[in-house]
Protein backbone atom coordinates (compact mmCIF):
# COMPACT_ATOMS: atom_id res chain seq x y z
CA UNK A 1 0.00 0.00 0.00
CA UNK A 2 2.85 2.31 0.96
CA UNK A 3 4.67 1.68 -2.30
CA UNK A 4 1.54 2.49 -4.31
CA UNK A 5 1.16 5.75 -2.40
CA UNK A 6 4.83 6.56 -3.00
CA UNK A 7 4.39 5.83 -6.71
CA UNK A 8 1.33 8.10 -6.95
CA UNK A 9 3.17 10.85 -5.07
CA UNK A 10 6.19 10.58 -7.34
CA UNK A 11 3.98 10.72 -10.46
CA UNK A 12 2.20 13.77 -9.02
CA UNK A 13 5.56 15.45 -8.25
CA UNK A 14 6.77 14.61 -11.75
CA UNK A 15 3.84 16.39 -13.38
CA UNK A 16 3.84 19.27 -10.86
CA UNK A 17 7.59 19.92 -11.37
CA UNK A 18 7.13 19.67 -15.11
CA UNK A 19 4.39 22.29 -15.17
CA UNK A 20 6.22 24.55 -12.66
CA UNK A 21 9.45 24.59 -14.64
CA UNK A 22 7.82 24.80 -18.04
CA UNK A 23 9.50 26.93 -20.71
CA UNK A 24 7.81 30.04 -22.06
CA UNK A 25 6.75 28.29 -25.29
CA UNK A 26 5.24 25.51 -23.17
CA UNK A 27 3.18 27.98 -21.18
CA UNK A 28 1.95 29.65 -24.37
CA UNK A 29 1.10 26.25 -25.85
CA UNK A 30 -0.91 25.27 -22.77
CA UNK A 31 -2.77 28.59 -22.85
CA UNK A 32 -3.68 27.93 -26.48
CA UNK A 33 -4.78 24.36 -25.63
CA UNK A 34 -7.05 25.60 -22.82
CA UNK A 35 -8.62 28.35 -24.96
CA UNK A 36 -9.08 25.90 -27.82
CA UNK A 37 -10.70 23.24 -25.63
CA UNK A 38 -12.98 25.89 -24.13
CA UNK A 39 -14.11 27.00 -27.59
CA UNK A 40 -14.58 23.42 -28.77
CA UNK A 41 -16.45 22.03 -25.76
CA UNK A 42 -18.05 25.06 -24.09
CA UNK A 43 -19.06 26.99 -27.20
CA UNK A 44 -19.21 24.78 -30.28
CA UNK A 45 -20.44 21.60 -28.58
CA UNK A 46 -23.10 23.32 -26.47
CA UNK A 47 -24.42 25.91 -28.90
CA UNK A 48 -23.81 24.50 -32.36
CA UNK A 49 -23.09 20.76 -32.39
CA UNK A 50 -25.99 18.93 -30.82
CA UNK A 51 -26.39 15.21 -31.22
CA UNK A 52 -29.04 15.52 -33.93
CA UNK A 53 -30.66 12.11 -33.46
CA UNK A 54 -30.02 12.02 -29.70
CA UNK A 55 -31.89 15.30 -29.21
CA UNK A 56 -34.76 14.26 -31.42
CA UNK A 57 -35.39 10.77 -30.11
CA UNK A 58 -35.02 9.04 -26.77
CA UNK A 59 -34.45 5.47 -27.89
CA UNK A 60 -32.61 3.65 -30.65
CA UNK A 61 -35.80 2.19 -32.16
CA UNK A 62 -37.09 5.66 -32.98
CA UNK A 63 -33.71 6.73 -34.35
CA UNK A 64 -33.69 3.63 -36.59
CA UNK A 65 -37.16 4.34 -37.85
CA UNK A 66 -36.30 7.96 -38.61
CA UNK A 67 -33.15 7.06 -40.54
CA UNK A 68 -34.89 4.19 -42.35
CA UNK A 69 -37.58 6.61 -43.50
CA UNK A 70 -34.90 9.06 -44.58
CA UNK A 71 -32.98 6.58 -46.68
CA UNK A 72 -36.11 5.29 -48.39
CA UNK A 73 -36.76 7.42 -51.40
CA UNK A 74 -39.87 9.59 -51.57
CA UNK A 75 -42.59 8.26 -53.82
CA UNK A 76 -41.85 4.60 -53.05
CA UNK B 1 -37.78 13.46 -47.87
CA UNK B 2 -34.21 13.64 -49.12
CA UNK B 3 -35.28 15.59 -52.17
CA UNK B 4 -36.65 18.29 -49.87
CA UNK B 5 -33.21 19.07 -48.47
CA UNK B 6 -31.83 22.41 -49.43
CA UNK B 7 -28.92 21.79 -51.84
CA UNK B 8 -27.22 24.76 -50.18
CA UNK B 9 -27.27 22.86 -46.88
CA UNK B 10 -25.43 19.94 -48.50
CA UNK B 11 -22.84 22.25 -50.07
CA UNK B 12 -22.27 24.16 -46.80
CA UNK B 13 -22.02 20.93 -44.81
CA UNK B 14 -19.48 19.61 -47.30
CA UNK B 15 -17.55 22.88 -47.29
CA UNK B 16 -17.47 22.89 -43.49
CA UNK B 17 -16.24 19.30 -43.31
CA UNK B 18 -13.63 19.97 -46.00
CA UNK B 19 -12.39 23.08 -44.20
CA UNK B 20 -12.10 21.25 -40.87
CA UNK B 21 -10.39 18.24 -42.42
CA UNK B 22 -7.94 20.34 -44.45
CA UNK B 23 -6.97 22.46 -41.43
CA UNK B 24 -6.73 19.40 -39.16
CA UNK B 25 -4.42 17.83 -41.70
CA UNK B 26 -2.08 20.82 -41.57
CA UNK B 27 -1.00 19.71 -38.09
CA UNK B 28 -1.17 15.92 -38.25
CA UNK B 29 1.58 15.04 -40.80
CA UNK B 30 4.25 16.92 -38.87
CA UNK B 31 3.32 15.07 -35.68
CA UNK B 32 3.48 11.72 -37.49
CA UNK B 33 6.87 12.33 -39.06
CA UNK B 34 8.67 14.57 -36.59
CA UNK B 35 8.00 12.12 -33.76
CA UNK B 36 10.07 9.50 -35.61
CA UNK B 37 12.82 11.97 -36.55
CA UNK B 38 13.12 13.03 -32.91
CA UNK B 39 13.23 9.35 -31.89
CA UNK B 40 16.08 8.71 -34.37
CA UNK B 41 17.98 11.71 -33.02
CA UNK B 42 17.52 10.67 -29.42
CA UNK B 43 18.66 7.17 -30.34
CA UNK B 44 21.87 8.74 -31.67
CA UNK B 45 22.25 10.55 -28.35
CA UNK B 46 21.60 7.34 -26.42
CA UNK B 47 24.14 5.37 -28.44
CA UNK B 48 26.91 7.97 -28.68
CA UNK B 49 26.37 9.86 -25.40
CA UNK B 50 27.32 13.08 -27.23
CA UNK B 51 25.70 16.22 -25.85
CA UNK B 52 25.39 17.65 -29.39
CA UNK B 53 22.80 14.97 -30.24
CA UNK B 54 20.88 15.81 -27.06
CA UNK B 55 20.84 19.47 -28.11
CA UNK B 56 19.64 18.53 -31.58
CA UNK B 57 16.96 16.24 -30.15
CA UNK B 58 15.66 18.88 -27.74
CA UNK B 59 15.45 21.55 -30.44
CA UNK B 60 13.34 19.43 -32.79
CA UNK B 61 11.36 18.06 -29.86
CA UNK B 62 10.38 21.63 -28.99
CA UNK B 63 9.04 22.20 -32.52
CA UNK B 64 7.26 18.85 -32.31
CA UNK B 65 5.71 19.97 -29.00
CA UNK B 66 4.46 23.27 -30.44
CA UNK B 67 2.84 21.53 -33.39
CA UNK B 68 1.39 18.80 -31.16
CA UNK B 69 -0.13 21.35 -28.76
CA UNK B 70 -1.68 23.46 -31.51
CA UNK B 71 -3.03 20.49 -33.46
CA UNK B 72 -4.32 18.41 -30.57
CA UNK B 73 -8.13 18.06 -30.44
CA UNK B 74 -8.72 19.75 -33.82
CA UNK B 75 -9.94 16.35 -35.07
CA UNK B 76 -12.65 16.18 -32.39
CA UNK B 77 -14.61 18.78 -34.37
CA UNK B 78 -14.90 16.30 -37.25
CA UNK B 79 -16.61 13.87 -34.87
CA UNK B 80 -19.03 16.61 -33.77
CA UNK B 81 -19.86 17.24 -37.41
CA UNK B 82 -20.67 13.58 -38.00
CA UNK B 83 -23.27 13.62 -35.23
CA UNK B 84 -24.81 16.98 -36.11
CA UNK B 85 -24.51 17.53 -39.85
CA UNK B 86 -24.29 13.93 -41.07
CA UNK B 87 -26.67 12.07 -38.77
CA UNK B 88 -28.14 9.76 -41.44
CA UNK B 89 -24.64 8.73 -42.41
CA UNK B 90 -23.46 8.35 -38.79
CA UNK B 91 -26.39 6.13 -37.93
CA UNK B 92 -26.12 4.11 -41.16
CA UNK B 93 -22.40 3.28 -40.63
CA UNK B 94 -23.14 2.08 -37.11
CA UNK B 95 -20.33 0.60 -35.04
CA UNK B 96 -18.00 0.32 -38.01
CA UNK B 97 -17.04 3.93 -37.62
CA UNK B 98 -17.54 4.04 -33.86
CA UNK B 99 -15.18 1.19 -32.96
CA UNK B 100 -12.03 2.48 -34.72
CA UNK B 101 -12.68 6.04 -33.49
CA UNK B 102 -13.13 4.83 -29.90
CA UNK B 103 -9.85 2.89 -30.06
CA UNK B 104 -8.16 5.99 -31.45
CA UNK B 105 -9.57 8.17 -28.67
CA UNK B 106 -8.44 5.86 -25.86
CA UNK B 107 -5.01 5.34 -27.42
CA UNK B 108 -4.50 9.07 -27.93
CA UNK B 109 -5.54 9.88 -24.35
CA UNK B 110 -3.10 7.44 -22.75
CA UNK B 111 -0.36 8.37 -25.17
CA UNK B 112 -0.73 12.09 -24.61
CA UNK B 113 -1.11 11.99 -20.85
CA UNK B 114 1.82 9.69 -20.19
CA UNK B 115 4.58 9.37 -22.75
CA UNK B 116 4.41 12.88 -24.18
CA UNK B 117 4.75 14.14 -20.59
CA UNK B 118 7.83 11.95 -20.08
CA UNK B 119 9.28 13.30 -23.34
CA UNK B 120 9.05 16.91 -22.19
CA UNK B 121 9.20 16.75 -18.40
CA UNK B 122 11.44 13.71 -18.08
CA UNK B 123 14.86 15.03 -19.16
CA UNK B 124 17.24 14.41 -16.21
CA UNK B 125 14.36 12.97 -14.15
CA UNK B 126 13.94 9.52 -15.67
CA UNK B 127 16.83 7.42 -16.93
CA UNK B 128 18.00 7.83 -20.52
CA UNK B 129 16.69 4.46 -21.62
CA UNK B 130 13.17 5.06 -20.29
CA UNK B 131 13.15 8.50 -21.86
CA UNK B 132 14.18 7.05 -25.21
CA UNK B 133 11.51 4.33 -24.98
CA UNK B 134 8.89 7.01 -24.22
CA UNK B 135 9.94 9.00 -27.29
CA UNK B 136 9.66 5.91 -29.47
CA UNK B 137 6.28 5.06 -27.95
CA UNK B 138 5.01 8.55 -28.76
CA UNK B 139 6.10 8.08 -32.38
CA UNK B 140 4.61 4.61 -32.69
CA UNK B 141 1.46 5.58 -30.75
CA UNK B 142 0.82 8.71 -32.83
CA UNK B 143 1.06 6.68 -36.03
CA UNK B 144 -1.10 3.86 -34.65
CA UNK B 145 -3.62 6.47 -33.61
CA UNK B 146 -3.76 7.60 -37.25
CA UNK B 147 -4.32 3.97 -38.28
CA UNK B 148 -7.82 3.84 -36.78
CA UNK B 149 -8.97 7.05 -38.42
CA UNK B 150 -7.64 5.83 -41.74
CA UNK B 151 -9.34 2.44 -41.31
CA UNK B 152 -12.64 4.29 -40.83
CA UNK B 153 -12.01 6.44 -43.92
CA UNK B 154 -10.98 3.37 -45.94
CA UNK B 155 -14.29 1.74 -45.12
CA UNK B 156 -16.05 4.70 -46.74
CA UNK B 157 -14.00 4.09 -49.90
CA UNK B 158 -14.50 0.31 -49.86
CA UNK B 159 -17.18 -0.89 -47.42
CA UNK B 160 -16.39 -4.44 -46.25
CA UNK B 161 -16.87 -6.71 -43.23
CA UNK B 162 -20.45 -5.68 -42.45
CA UNK B 163 -24.09 -6.67 -42.86
CA UNK B 164 -26.94 -4.19 -43.13
CA UNK B 165 -29.66 -4.67 -40.54
CA UNK B 166 -33.02 -3.39 -41.86
CA UNK B 167 -34.45 -3.32 -38.33
CA UNK B 168 -31.85 -0.88 -36.98
CA UNK B 169 -31.10 0.73 -40.38
CA UNK B 170 -27.43 0.28 -39.53
CA UNK B 171 -24.49 -1.60 -40.92
CA UNK B 172 -23.19 -4.03 -38.33
CA UNK B 173 -19.61 -5.22 -38.25
CA UNK B 174 -19.37 -8.99 -38.77
CA UNK B 175 -15.65 -9.26 -39.41
CA UNK B 176 -13.30 -6.84 -37.67
CA UNK B 177 -10.27 -8.21 -39.55
CA UNK B 178 -11.91 -7.56 -42.93
CA UNK B 179 -12.39 -3.95 -41.84
CA UNK B 180 -8.84 -3.63 -40.47
CA UNK B 181 -7.12 -5.36 -43.40
CA UNK B 182 -9.34 -3.79 -46.04
CA UNK B 183 -6.87 -3.35 -48.96
CA UNK B 184 -7.75 0.35 -49.11
CA UNK B 185 -6.98 0.69 -45.37
CA UNK B 186 -3.57 -0.96 -45.71
CA UNK B 187 -2.60 1.23 -48.68
CA UNK B 188 -4.05 4.34 -47.08
CA UNK B 189 -2.26 3.85 -43.78
CA UNK B 190 1.12 3.25 -45.40
CA UNK B 191 0.73 6.01 -47.98
CA UNK B 192 -0.65 8.62 -45.57
CA UNK B 193 1.83 8.06 -42.74
CA UNK B 194 4.76 8.03 -45.16
CA UNK B 195 3.51 11.35 -46.60
CA UNK B 196 3.77 12.69 -43.04
CA UNK B 197 7.34 11.39 -42.82
CA UNK B 198 8.20 13.19 -46.05
CA UNK B 199 6.74 16.48 -44.80
CA UNK B 200 8.57 16.25 -41.47
CA UNK B 201 11.83 15.42 -43.25
CA UNK B 202 11.45 18.42 -45.54
CA UNK B 203 10.58 20.58 -42.53
CA UNK B 204 13.76 19.53 -40.69
CA UNK B 205 15.88 19.79 -43.81
CA UNK B 206 14.44 23.18 -44.81
CA UNK B 207 15.00 24.76 -41.39
CA UNK B 208 18.50 23.26 -41.24
CA UNK B 209 19.22 24.78 -44.67
CA UNK B 210 18.05 28.14 -43.30
CA UNK B 211 20.67 27.85 -40.53
CA UNK B 212 23.30 27.10 -43.18
CA UNK B 213 22.20 30.10 -45.26
CA UNK B 214 22.55 32.24 -42.12
CA UNK B 215 25.90 30.56 -41.32
CA UNK B 216 24.63 29.60 -37.88
CA UNK B 217 24.76 26.26 -36.04
CA UNK B 218 26.44 24.54 -38.99
CA UNK B 219 27.29 21.28 -37.26
CA UNK B 220 23.76 21.08 -35.84
CA UNK B 221 22.32 21.74 -39.31
CA UNK B 222 24.48 19.11 -41.05
CA UNK B 223 23.58 16.42 -38.52
CA UNK B 224 19.89 17.29 -38.77
CA UNK B 225 20.08 17.15 -42.59
CA UNK B 226 21.73 13.74 -42.34
CA UNK B 227 18.86 12.27 -40.32
CA UNK B 228 16.15 14.08 -42.32
CA UNK B 229 17.80 13.30 -45.67
CA UNK B 230 18.08 9.56 -45.04
CA UNK B 231 14.60 9.32 -43.50
CA UNK B 232 13.13 11.56 -46.19
CA UNK B 233 14.69 9.65 -49.08
CA UNK B 234 13.58 6.27 -47.70
CA UNK B 235 10.08 7.65 -46.97
CA UNK B 236 9.66 9.35 -50.35
CA UNK B 237 10.69 6.17 -52.21
CA UNK B 238 8.28 4.18 -50.04
CA UNK B 239 5.64 6.84 -50.73
CA UNK B 240 6.01 6.25 -54.48
CA UNK B 241 5.70 2.49 -53.92
CA UNK B 242 2.58 2.82 -51.74
CA UNK B 243 1.13 5.36 -54.15
CA UNK B 244 1.42 2.83 -56.95
CA UNK B 245 -0.19 0.19 -54.77
CA UNK B 246 -3.02 2.61 -53.83
CA UNK B 247 -3.71 3.39 -57.50
CA UNK B 248 -3.94 -0.33 -58.34
CA UNK B 249 -6.38 -0.87 -55.48
CA UNK B 250 -8.47 2.13 -56.55
CA UNK B 251 -8.61 0.75 -60.10
CA UNK B 252 -10.41 -2.28 -58.63
CA UNK B 253 -12.63 -0.82 -55.90
CA UNK B 254 -13.29 2.72 -57.21
CA UNK B 255 -12.86 2.32 -60.96
CA UNK B 256 -14.66 5.55 -61.93
CA UNK B 257 -12.39 7.56 -59.65
CA UNK B 258 -9.39 5.81 -61.24
CA UNK B 259 -10.54 6.57 -64.78
CA UNK B 260 -11.27 10.18 -63.74
CA UNK B 261 -7.84 10.90 -62.26
CA UNK B 262 -6.22 9.38 -65.34
CA UNK B 263 -8.69 11.40 -67.48
CA UNK B 264 -9.28 8.19 -69.43
CA UNK B 265 -12.57 8.73 -71.22
CA UNK B 266 -12.42 5.69 -73.48
CA UNK B 267 -11.03 2.32 -72.47
CA UNK B 268 -8.13 0.95 -74.47
CA UNK B 269 -5.45 -1.69 -74.79
CA UNK B 270 -1.81 -0.55 -74.59
CA UNK B 271 -3.00 2.34 -72.44
CA UNK B 272 -0.27 4.91 -71.83
CA UNK B 273 0.22 6.66 -68.51
CA UNK B 274 -0.01 10.43 -68.70
CA UNK B 275 2.92 11.95 -66.79
CA UNK B 276 1.33 15.36 -67.18
CA UNK B 277 -1.09 17.11 -69.47
CA UNK B 278 -3.53 19.96 -69.83
CA UNK B 279 -7.24 19.27 -70.26
CA UNK B 280 -9.82 21.17 -72.26
CA UNK B 281 -13.53 20.87 -72.93
CA UNK B 282 -13.97 17.77 -75.12
CA UNK B 283 -16.29 16.75 -77.92
CA UNK B 284 -17.73 13.67 -76.21
CA UNK B 285 -20.53 13.60 -73.66
CA UNK B 286 -22.20 11.08 -71.42
CA UNK B 287 -25.66 12.54 -71.00
CA UNK B 288 -25.04 16.16 -70.06
CA UNK B 289 -21.54 15.48 -68.70
CA UNK B 290 -18.68 16.61 -70.90
CA UNK B 291 -15.62 14.37 -71.13
CA UNK B 292 -12.52 16.56 -71.35
CA UNK B 293 -9.69 15.88 -73.76
CA UNK B 294 -6.01 16.78 -73.72
CA UNK B 295 -4.60 20.01 -75.15
CA UNK B 296 -1.22 18.35 -74.80
CA UNK B 297 0.20 15.50 -72.77
CA UNK B 298 3.46 13.82 -71.93
CA UNK B 299 2.85 10.10 -71.80
CA UNK B 300 4.69 6.83 -71.31
CA UNK B 301 3.39 4.19 -73.76
CA UNK B 302 1.67 1.03 -72.43
CA UNK B 303 2.51 1.77 -68.80
CA UNK B 304 -1.06 2.10 -67.52
CA UNK B 305 -1.94 -1.30 -69.02
CA UNK B 306 1.18 -2.83 -67.44
CA UNK B 307 0.55 -1.27 -64.02
CA UNK B 308 -3.13 -2.20 -63.81
CA UNK B 309 -3.28 -5.41 -65.84
CA UNK B 310 0.30 -6.67 -65.62
CA UNK B 311 0.50 -6.78 -69.41
CA UNK B 312 0.93 -4.09 -72.07
CA UNK B 313 -1.99 -5.57 -74.02
CA UNK B 314 -4.29 -5.40 -70.98
CA UNK B 315 -7.50 -3.44 -71.53
CA UNK B 316 -7.92 -0.47 -69.19
CA UNK B 317 -11.60 0.55 -68.93
CA UNK B 318 -12.39 4.24 -69.32
CA UNK B 319 -15.17 6.41 -67.92
CA UNK B 320 -17.50 5.49 -70.80
CA UNK B 321 -17.06 1.76 -70.05
CA UNK B 322 -17.74 2.32 -66.38
CA UNK B 323 -20.88 4.36 -66.95
CA UNK B 324 -22.43 2.75 -70.04
CA UNK B 325 -21.07 -0.73 -69.32
CA UNK B 326 -19.03 -3.02 -71.53
CA UNK B 327 -20.48 -6.57 -71.65
CA UNK B 328 -17.51 -7.82 -73.67
CA UNK B 329 -15.22 -6.91 -70.78
CA UNK B 330 -17.70 -7.97 -68.11
CA UNK B 331 -18.35 -4.40 -66.94
CA UNK B 332 -21.81 -3.62 -65.63
CA UNK B 333 -23.47 -0.32 -66.57
CA UNK B 334 -24.72 2.20 -64.03
CA UNK B 335 -28.27 1.50 -65.23
CA UNK B 336 -27.90 -2.19 -64.36
CA UNK B 337 -26.43 -1.31 -60.97
CA UNK B 338 -29.33 1.06 -60.38
CA UNK B 339 -31.80 -1.76 -61.05
CA UNK B 340 -30.02 -3.96 -58.53
CA UNK B 341 -29.89 -1.11 -56.04
CA UNK B 342 -33.62 -0.51 -56.50
CA UNK B 343 -34.29 -4.20 -55.81
CA UNK B 344 -32.47 -3.83 -52.48
CA UNK B 345 -34.33 -0.60 -51.80
CA UNK B 346 -37.68 -2.29 -52.53
CA UNK B 347 -36.87 -5.04 -50.04
CA UNK B 348 -36.18 -2.40 -47.41
CA UNK B 349 -39.40 -0.62 -48.27
CA UNK B 350 -41.34 -3.86 -48.02
CA UNK B 351 -39.65 -4.58 -44.68
CA UNK B 352 -40.91 -1.24 -43.38
CA UNK B 353 -44.47 -1.83 -44.61
CA UNK B 354 -44.65 -5.41 -43.30
CA UNK B 355 -43.34 -4.25 -39.95
CA UNK B 356 -46.03 -1.59 -39.79
CA UNK B 357 -48.61 -4.30 -40.65
CA UNK B 358 -47.06 -6.53 -37.95
CA UNK B 359 -46.58 -9.36 -40.50
CA UNK B 360 -43.93 -11.06 -38.35
CA UNK B 361 -43.31 -14.05 -40.59
CA UNK B 362 -42.64 -11.94 -43.68
CA UNK B 363 -40.56 -9.50 -41.61
CA UNK B 364 -38.31 -12.41 -40.52
CA UNK B 365 -37.97 -13.64 -44.12
CA UNK B 366 -36.96 -10.16 -45.25
CA UNK B 367 -34.57 -9.79 -42.33
CA UNK B 368 -32.86 -13.03 -43.40
CA UNK B 369 -32.72 -11.78 -46.98
CA UNK B 370 -30.37 -8.98 -45.93
CA UNK B 371 -28.05 -11.56 -44.33
CA UNK B 372 -27.81 -13.75 -47.47
CA UNK B 373 -24.45 -13.58 -49.18
CA UNK B 374 -25.94 -13.56 -52.68
CA UNK B 375 -28.22 -10.65 -51.81
CA UNK B 376 -25.39 -8.71 -50.14
CA UNK B 377 -22.91 -9.27 -52.98
CA UNK B 378 -25.26 -8.78 -55.91
CA UNK B 379 -27.93 -6.37 -54.73
CA UNK B 380 -27.27 -4.53 -51.49
CA UNK B 381 -23.75 -3.57 -52.55
CA UNK B 382 -25.41 -1.39 -55.22
CA UNK B 383 -27.92 0.10 -52.77
CA UNK B 384 -26.67 3.64 -53.34
CA UNK B 385 -27.28 3.42 -57.11
CA UNK B 386 -31.02 3.45 -56.40
CA UNK B 387 -30.65 7.20 -55.70
CA UNK B 388 -28.80 7.91 -58.95
CA UNK B 389 -31.11 9.83 -61.28
CA UNK B 390 -28.98 9.77 -64.45
CA UNK B 391 -25.94 7.52 -65.08
CA UNK B 392 -23.50 10.41 -65.51
CA UNK B 393 -24.14 11.43 -61.89
CA UNK B 394 -21.55 8.83 -60.81
CA UNK B 395 -18.73 10.70 -62.59
CA UNK B 396 -16.69 12.88 -60.23
CA UNK B 397 -15.06 16.17 -61.20
CA UNK B 398 -12.57 14.99 -63.84
CA UNK B 399 -10.50 18.19 -63.92
CA UNK B 400 -10.13 18.28 -60.12
CA UNK B 401 -9.29 14.59 -59.90
CA UNK B 402 -6.77 14.70 -62.76
CA UNK B 403 -4.86 17.80 -61.63
CA UNK B 404 -4.80 16.93 -57.92
CA UNK B 405 -3.46 13.45 -58.71
CA UNK B 406 -0.83 14.54 -61.23
CA UNK B 407 0.45 17.50 -59.21
CA UNK B 408 0.77 15.22 -56.19
CA UNK B 409 2.78 12.68 -58.17
CA UNK B 410 5.05 15.32 -59.74
CA UNK B 411 5.75 16.79 -56.30
CA UNK B 412 6.48 13.30 -54.99
CA UNK B 413 9.26 12.81 -57.56
CA UNK B 414 10.59 16.30 -56.84
CA UNK B 415 10.97 15.34 -53.15
CA UNK B 416 12.92 12.19 -54.02
CA UNK B 417 15.32 14.34 -56.04
CA UNK B 418 15.77 16.89 -53.23
CA UNK B 419 16.43 14.27 -50.56
CA UNK B 420 18.89 12.41 -52.81
CA UNK B 421 20.73 15.64 -53.67
CA UNK B 422 20.92 16.64 -50.00
CA UNK B 423 22.73 13.41 -49.19
CA UNK B 424 25.07 13.77 -52.18
CA UNK B 425 26.03 17.32 -51.12
CA UNK B 426 26.33 16.26 -47.50
CA UNK B 427 28.66 13.36 -48.24
CA UNK B 428 30.90 15.35 -50.57
CA UNK B 429 30.97 18.11 -47.89
CA UNK B 430 29.77 20.87 -50.22
CA UNK B 431 26.28 21.47 -48.90
CA UNK B 432 27.12 24.87 -47.32
CA UNK B 433 28.37 26.08 -50.70
CA UNK B 434 25.22 25.09 -52.63
CA UNK B 435 23.32 28.31 -51.90
CA UNK B 436 20.77 27.66 -54.67
CA UNK B 437 20.02 24.25 -53.22
CA UNK B 438 19.71 25.54 -49.65
CA UNK B 439 17.19 28.15 -50.82
CA UNK B 440 15.15 25.65 -52.86
CA UNK B 441 14.87 23.32 -49.85
CA UNK B 442 13.97 26.22 -47.54
CA UNK B 443 11.19 27.36 -49.88
CA UNK B 444 10.04 23.75 -50.41
CA UNK B 445 9.00 23.22 -46.78
CA UNK B 446 5.25 23.61 -47.46
CA UNK B 447 5.26 21.57 -50.67
CA UNK B 448 4.87 18.09 -49.09
CA UNK B 449 1.90 19.47 -47.18
CA UNK B 450 0.44 20.77 -50.46
CA UNK B 451 0.96 17.32 -52.01
CA UNK B 452 -0.64 15.66 -49.02
CA UNK B 453 -3.69 17.93 -49.13
CA UNK B 454 -3.98 17.28 -52.89
CA UNK B 455 -4.03 13.57 -52.06
CA UNK B 456 -6.96 14.10 -49.68
CA UNK B 457 -8.78 16.27 -52.22
CA UNK B 458 -8.40 13.46 -54.74
CA UNK B 459 -9.55 10.87 -52.20
CA UNK B 460 -12.66 12.73 -51.17
CA UNK B 461 -13.67 14.61 -54.32
CA UNK B 462 -12.80 11.68 -56.57
CA UNK B 463 -15.27 9.56 -54.58
CA UNK B 464 -18.22 11.81 -55.39
CA UNK B 465 -21.18 11.41 -55.48
CA UNK B 466 -20.62 8.84 -52.74
CA UNK B 467 -20.08 9.33 -49.04
CA UNK B 468 -19.89 5.53 -48.78
CA UNK B 469 -18.81 4.05 -52.07
CA UNK B 470 -21.82 2.56 -53.93
CA UNK B 471 -23.95 2.49 -50.77
CA UNK B 472 -24.85 6.06 -49.87
CA UNK B 473 -24.57 9.30 -51.83
CA UNK B 474 -23.62 12.48 -49.97
CA UNK B 475 -27.08 13.98 -50.52
CA UNK B 476 -28.69 11.20 -48.46
CA UNK B 477 -26.20 11.44 -45.61
CA UNK B 478 -26.90 14.98 -44.49
CA UNK B 479 -29.05 15.98 -41.47
CA UNK B 480 -32.08 18.17 -41.95
CA UNK B 481 -30.74 21.14 -40.00
CA UNK B 482 -30.71 24.87 -40.63
CA UNK B 483 -28.23 26.08 -43.21
CA UNK B 484 -27.57 29.21 -41.12
CA UNK B 485 -26.08 27.19 -38.28
CA UNK B 486 -23.70 25.42 -40.66
CA UNK B 487 -22.69 28.73 -42.23
CA UNK B 488 -22.04 30.26 -38.79
CA UNK B 489 -19.79 27.40 -37.69
CA UNK B 490 -18.01 27.45 -41.04
CA UNK B 491 -16.87 31.02 -40.35
CA UNK B 492 -16.13 30.27 -36.68
CA UNK B 493 -13.85 27.44 -37.80
CA UNK B 494 -12.20 29.63 -40.39
CA UNK B 495 -11.32 32.18 -37.68
CA UNK B 496 -10.41 29.55 -35.06
CA UNK B 497 -8.15 27.48 -37.29
CA UNK B 498 -6.52 30.47 -38.93
CA UNK B 499 -5.75 31.86 -35.45
CA UNK B 500 -4.29 28.50 -34.43
CA UNK B 501 -2.16 28.40 -37.56
CA UNK B 502 -0.90 31.94 -37.00
CA UNK B 503 -0.15 31.08 -33.34
CA UNK B 504 1.74 27.94 -34.37
CA UNK B 505 3.80 29.69 -37.01
CA UNK B 506 4.65 32.65 -34.77
CA UNK B 507 5.71 30.50 -31.79
CA UNK B 508 7.68 28.21 -34.08
CA UNK B 509 9.43 31.07 -35.89
CA UNK B 510 10.47 32.52 -32.54
CA UNK B 511 11.89 29.17 -31.40
CA UNK B 512 13.65 28.59 -34.71
CA UNK B 513 15.24 32.04 -34.66
CA UNK B 514 16.52 31.55 -31.13
CA UNK B 515 18.07 28.25 -32.29
CA UNK B 516 19.03 25.22 -30.24
CA UNK B 517 19.87 25.89 -26.59
CA UNK B 518 23.45 25.70 -25.36
Task: Provide an overview of this structure.
The complex is a heterodimer of chains A (76) and B (518). Chain A is mostly helical and 76 residues long. Chain A has 4 helices and no strands. Chain A has a domain at 24-76. Chain B has 518 residues and is mainly α. Chain B has helices spanning 7-48, 51-71, 76-85, 87-93, 95-121, 128-157, 176-180, 183-213, 218-253, 255-261, 303-309, 319-324, 334-356, 360-371, 373-378, 398-427, 435-443, 447-461, 474-477, 483-514; strands at residues 162-165, 170-173, 273-286, 289-300, 466-468, 472-473. In chain B, the strands form 3 sheets. Chain B has a two-stranded antiparallel ribbon with strand order 1-2. Chain B has a two-stranded antiparallel ribbon with strand order 3-4. Chain B has a two-stranded antiparallel ribbon with strand order 5-6. In chain B, helix 8 (183-213) packs antiparallel against helix 9 and helix 8 runs antiparallel to helix 18 (447-461). The longest helix of chain B has 42 residues, at 7-48. The chains are: A mainly alpha (76), B mainly alpha (518). Chains A and B meet through helix 1, helix 2, helix 3 and helix 4 of A and helix 2, helix 3, helix 4, helix 5 and helix 13 of B.
Amino acid sequence: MGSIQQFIESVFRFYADGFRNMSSWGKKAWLIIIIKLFIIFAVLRIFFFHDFLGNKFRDDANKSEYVRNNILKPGN
Amino acid sequence: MIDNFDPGLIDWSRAQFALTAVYHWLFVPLTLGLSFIVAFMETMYFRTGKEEWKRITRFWMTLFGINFAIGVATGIILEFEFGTNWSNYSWFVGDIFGAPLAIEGILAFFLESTFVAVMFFGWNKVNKKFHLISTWLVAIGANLSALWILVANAWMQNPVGMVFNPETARNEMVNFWDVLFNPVAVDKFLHTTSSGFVFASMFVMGISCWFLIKKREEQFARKSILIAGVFGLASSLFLAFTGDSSARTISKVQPVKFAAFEALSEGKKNAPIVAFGVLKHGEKYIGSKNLPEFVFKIEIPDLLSVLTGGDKDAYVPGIIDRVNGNPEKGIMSVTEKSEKGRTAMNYLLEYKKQKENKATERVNILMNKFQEKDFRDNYFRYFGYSYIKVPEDVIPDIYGSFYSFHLMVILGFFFIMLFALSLVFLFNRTIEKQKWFLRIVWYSIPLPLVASELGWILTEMGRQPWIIQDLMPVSVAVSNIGKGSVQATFWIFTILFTSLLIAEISIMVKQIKSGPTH
